UniProtKB/TrEMBL annotation:
Residues annotated as transmembrane: none
GO molecular function, a single term: oxidoreductase activity
Keyword Signal: yes
UniProt keyword list: Oxidoreductase, Signal
Organism: Luteimonas soli
Region annotation Disordered: where it falls in the sequence: 24-52
Residues annotated as domain Glucose/Sorbosone dehydrogenase: 62-390
Official protein name in the record: PQQ-dependent sugar dehydrogenase
């Protein structure tokens, strides 16, 4: 089958998969993305809780937490998927409310998503948030907005919120938003945009679904983006052929790494290249949920292959490349939160190569991983009552 016919076949069968029996969310792939599962067999030997080289301390708990960001004063912002933003005093565990949060389209994998501070936050107090927004009819899509955060001792207010980016087009279903946010050292805003479980938009340059997007801080398109001369949404795109990218971070050498959920198998850690095409849905090291085969990456060398691929899956939720002093042996390593694997996965790099080095059994789905100002590693558990955990050396 030609690549074009394969993509069309994937698109036509998407409707069948979306209504498959036994899929409570009505979307293909929900079992990996949203439903608790037993931990999969590990590529690295799992490290049990009593053998982990770190202690885990509970600081607070939340209602479906999704993302976190540390403020310059050491306090922590935490988003909750139903549409709340919390301010946490990590020294005391006290949790306050931030008002002015936008209305979100909650359900499935959608709701309030990520939060990131503007590089000049100490002076301008500007923050960026991502969330699912309802559209016309039964459609929705991810958006990114920015506003000013006014804080007080117990909470604060998000003021002047303005949408600067939208997923195009809005589609049905509530899966694969992606919408992780990251700033680089040049002040550019990076957005991971999932293909919304629609398969072929990941290869369609008239859509920004299934892409990594690079913007200026006001939402405008940098002139040096790889597809800037195409105009429209294509100008936003840095790389394409992604499925559900849920973690992005830069290493010390300035290289961008991205982790995404594969279909039934084939979770990926990718080194992101300017203008790179990572092949989905034409190639993947996993298969469709209805059992149909997807050719592996090695059958189509013109597409960028993952540096690490997981089958069975880990269900990656987030990515941190560690640079702190508290765990000196781990400087430069990547940490990936695992959902169905209920794990924290450590990855070691060797130049452009990577390998899973260790897998820590956390006993719960890990939604987000972040580095604290003192070099501690912070985790958010997924779901109702999801705990905020601080990891420090034993």
């Amino acid at each position: 089958m030609t690549p074009r016919l394969l993509v069309l076949a994937c698109a036509s069968l998407a409707l069948i998969a979306c209504n498959a029996p036994g899929n409570a969310s009505g979307q293909p792939g929900a079992a990996q993305d949203d439903k608790p599962q037993a931990a999969e067999p590990a590529a690295a030997e799992p490290v049990a809780s009593d053998s982990r080289p770190f202690a885990s301390t509970e600081v607070a708990s939340f209602d479906e937490p999704w993302a976190m960001a540390f403020l310059p004063d050491g306090r922590l912002l935490v988003t909750e998927k139903r549409g709340a933003l919390k301010l946490v005093d990590v020294a005391t565990g006290k949790v306050g409310d931030i008002k002015g949060v936008p209305e979100v389209d909650y359900g499935g994998q959608g709701g309030f998503g990520d939060i990131a501070l503007h590089p000049g936050f100490a002076d301008n107090h500007v923050v960026y948030v991502s969330y699912a927004e309802a559209g016309d009819g039964d459609t929705r899509g991810g958006v990114v907005a920015r506003g000013t955060l006014a804080l007080d001792d117990s909470g604060g207010t998000l003021e002047g919120l303005e949408v600067i980016w939208r997923q195009v087009p809005k589609v049905g279903g509530r899966g694969h938003y992606g919408h992780r946010l990251l700033f680089d050292d040049d002040g550019k805003l990076w957005i991971s945009s999932g293909e919304r479980q629609k398969f072929d938009p990941a290869q369609d340059m008239q859509s920004n679904l299934g892409k990594l997007v690079r913007l200026d801080d006001d939402g405008s398109v940098p002139a040096d983006n790889p597809f800037a001369d195409q105009g429209g949404v294509a100008a936003q795109v840095w790389s394409l052929g992604h499925r559900n990218p849920l973690g992005i971070d830069f290493d010390a050498q300035g290289r961008l790494w991205e982790v995404e959920m594969g279909p039934k198998g084939g979770d990926e850690l990718n080194l992101v290249e300017r203008g790179g095409n990572y092949g989905y849905p034409i190639v993947s090291n996993g298969d469709h949920y209805d059992g149909r085969d997807i050719p592996d990456h090695d059958t189509r060398p013109e597409f960028d292959a993952p540096k690490v691929s997981w089958s069975p899956v880990i269900s990656p939720s987030s990515l941190l490349i560690y640079s702190g002093a508290m765990f000196p042996d781990w400087q430069g390593d990547a940490f990936i939160g695992g959902l169905s694997s209920q794990s924290l996965v450590r990855v070691e790099f060797d130049g452009d190569s990577a390998r899973e080095a260790q897998r820590f059994d956390m006993g719960s789905r890990i939604r987000a991983v972040e580095q604290g100002p003192d070099g501690a590693i912070w985790l958010l558990e997924d779901g109702d009552g999801g705990r905020l955990l601080k990891l420090t050396p034993r």
